[in-house]
Write a structure and sequence with these properties.
about 350 residues, alpha/beta, eight-stranded parallel beta barrel, about 10% strand, binds phosphoenolpyruvate, binds manganese (II) ion, CM_II_prokaryot, Chorismate_II_sf, chorismate mutase, transferase activity, EC 5.4.99.5
């Protein structure tokens, strides 16, 4: 099994799938068999201990689910992966021959927990995947990688699962692709896979996010699957059946390996994709900015205040000059850009005032 895991670790694209949570012995076995039948899944995932936001939700089946995974592995030959957050969980998972461990987003945020897991991994030879922290903080993610690496773990991979933000957005966790790209830039040798399930939180946009990740040259995907998604005990809205997973994987346009004479075009294409994604994010942020401006407009209307407030505008520009300077953006550009943004804001506020 160790050799198979090594082989899978190097395979591109690496596909990991399985239920958010192991629920029953039958569910684990049926999922494993159906995933294996697709011929497209390299490693089976299953949550055994679930870090839930609120108490009272299903908090995972616990250690008694580990033998179920062992049995599923025996029948299908698929290596298995489990999330660990404490030393005890690491020990239990290893005792039951779990092949790959992952550190969840709620653990990566906490250096105490990451250190505890890292200490438990000392002297162990097991691949570890590290999810990005819940909040958009690259340093925490890097810190977790460093702690695990210092414990002597040689095979470390990254999972991009998006970042939490306040309020309802299109995504359960905003992808903030630029952060994943920056993490890849800083760790060029490290595998990075994408977790569309936890980014989307819903089935209908999974494929779109998975395709984006592949376009951005991610090394693989981890996607939750369930034999009866609507009845899943956790994350029901985002899971798909093993068969639907296979269809999705079939419809993804996989990037070709760079062939010598195509290298230049492939590289250019990837960079253009990055530009497109960054532009998409800029537009989203601009949209949000206008919404805030509208709220201010409403406030001004209620209080009978003029729209244009020169002092405030000078303050905004000065801040932008200072920051822009550090980022290598010219004053000329900042001025043009902010003038355009300002005009658009005023138009939005005017609409509110005259409504
Ligand atoms: C999970 O993979 O089921 C999970 C809990 O993910 P995350 O840590 O990304 O929230
Ligand atoms: Mn989940």
């Amino acid at each position: 099994m160790k050799e198979l895991v090594q082989e899978k670790w190097k395979k591109r694209p690496l596909i990991i799938s399985g239920p958010c949570s192991a629920e029953t012995e039958e569910q684990v076995m049926e999922t494993a068999v159906r995933l294996n039948n697709t011929g497209k899944v390299d490693i089976m995932r299953a949550g055994i201990w679930k870090p839930r936001t609120r108490p009272g939700s299903f908090e995972g089946i616990g250690t008694k689910g580990l033998p179920w995974l062992q049995a599923a592995k025996k029948v299908t030959g698929m290596p298995v992966a489990v999330e660990v957050a404490t030393a005890k969980q690491v020990q239990d998972a290893l005792h039951f021959d779990v092949d790959v461990l992952w550190i969840g987003a709620r653990t990566t945020v906490n250096p105490f927990s990451v250190q505890e897991v890292a200490d438990a991994l000392r002297g162990v030879d097991v691949p570890v995947l590290i999810k990005n922290p819940i909040n958009p903080d690259l340093e925490l993610w890097i810190g977790a990688v460093e702690r695990v690496a210092k414990a002597g773990i040689k095979q470390i991979g990254l999972i991009h699962r998006g970042f939490s933000s306040y309020g309802n957005t299109e995504y359960r966790n905003a992808p903030m692709w630029h952060l994943a790209i920056e993490m890849k830039r800083r760790n060029p040798e490290m595998m990075m896979i994408n977790d569309p399930s936890h980014i989307c939180g819903r089935r209908d946009i999974l494929l779109d996010v998975a395709q984006k990740a592949i376009d951005l040259d991610f090394d693989g995907l981890i996607i939750e699957s369930h034999i009866d998604p609507d009845k899943a005990w956790s994350d029901a809205k985002q899971q798909v059946t093993p068969e639907r997973l296979a269809e999705m994987l079939d419809s993804i346009k996989w990037r070709k390996e760079d062939v010598a004479n195509e290298e230049y075009h492939a590289a250019l294409e990837k960079l253009r994709q990055q530009i497109n994604h960054l532009d998409d994010e800029l537009m989203q942020i601009l949209g949000q900015r206008m919404k805030v401006a509208e709220k201010i407009g409403q406030y001004k209307k209620d209080n009978n205040v003029a729209i244009l407030q020169t002092n405030r505008w000078n303050e905004i520009l000065q801040r932008a000059f200072d920051r822009g300077d550090k980022l290598g953006l010219s004053q000329e550009f900042i001025t043009k850009y902010f003038d355009a943004v300002h005009m658009e804001s005023i138009n939005h506020q005017n609409k509110i005032l005259n409504s």
